[in-house]
Amino acid sequence: KLQVVPSPELVKEGDNVTLVCEADGNPQPMFIFYKQNLDDWDDLSGLTDAGSGVLNLHEVSKNSTGTYKCQSLDLDDFSQIEERVDLFVNYIEEVHVKMEPSSNLHEGDTVTLSCDAYSPVDLTYQWKDEQGTMMGEGNQLVLRNLTFETPNTFCCKVMAPSVPGLEQSKNLSVAVRGKPRIVAISSPLYVHQDQVINLTCKAIAFPRPTLQWTINGTAHEYTDNQHITSNLTVRVSHELLREGARCRVSNELGTSEKHIQLHWMDQKSTAESQGVIIVAIIVAILVVAVLGAVIYFLHKKGKIPCGRAGKQDITKPEARKDKIVVEVKSDKLSEEAGLLQGANGERRAAADQVGQS
Fold this sequence. Notes:
The chain is an alpha+beta fold. It has three helices and 24 strands. It folds into three domains: 2-87, Immunoglobulin-like (Sandwich), CATH 2.60.40; 93-176, Immunoglobulins (Immunoglobulin-like, Sandwich), CATH 2.60.40.10; 179-264, Immunoglobulin-like. Residues 1-86, 93-173, 180-261 form the Ig-like domain. This is MUC18 protein.
């Protein structure tokens, strides 16, 4: 019995394949492997371990496709017995990418990218940019309104859905040519005399541009893909305050220029003071408005009584307490008065009786 591991239907280029040959002899017989080559058979004994019955094929390619046989010798009658198996290695080859038009692309143009490949099985196509973002499916990708920011590298990924893991990729570069465009520059600066400052200018273009400053200083330049950035360290002078600084970027297709204006520090302080005053006024108005709204809301809910009626309600419990106290005291006084009156009456009656006698 001769079998292929893994399944021969799913073998692809780059896989490691094992052919296992077994027989029920005792003692275990010796095995020899062969691969058919036209009308002949190539001996593969050099790829096995002393007739162990296991043939290892490393990183197979489409050339590994063919018919293999395992042969053994029957020691009883010295006859040969054999078993055959067909191995097919799936592959993808001849991956080609192209674009139309093929050159001289400018901002605003449209370009079509195409991808083709050959395989004995059905293929699908995917397009991704240099960041790995999916851009589309199918063997064509149309890019419209090109800009300098358009990714300059695209990848066509070719896959065979029926054979998991069988895929190939190929890259295509898209270069958009044009006059330099300045994309970032230092905002207006507030400085004082003899201060050391840093000015920044960043541009994008293809072909790669050169960047110059209209003032002298120490410049440090950096490039990232089609971007070029320059940081200029300079000491503030009367001329710099008066004229400002200009960043000029140029290549063979044109030149772009932008101006950086500098201001005295006093102007900044005045502007900041005015801004603080305005903010303070706005905050004060908002606070008063909020307090007014809260007071009005509480008044509507009856939480804050107003006027004489409110005062009466608030003092009413105290009035009741006083009234109770007064009434208690009044009762005591009445009782004491009654007792006194009774005592006085008895005294008066006794006096009258003494008088009458």
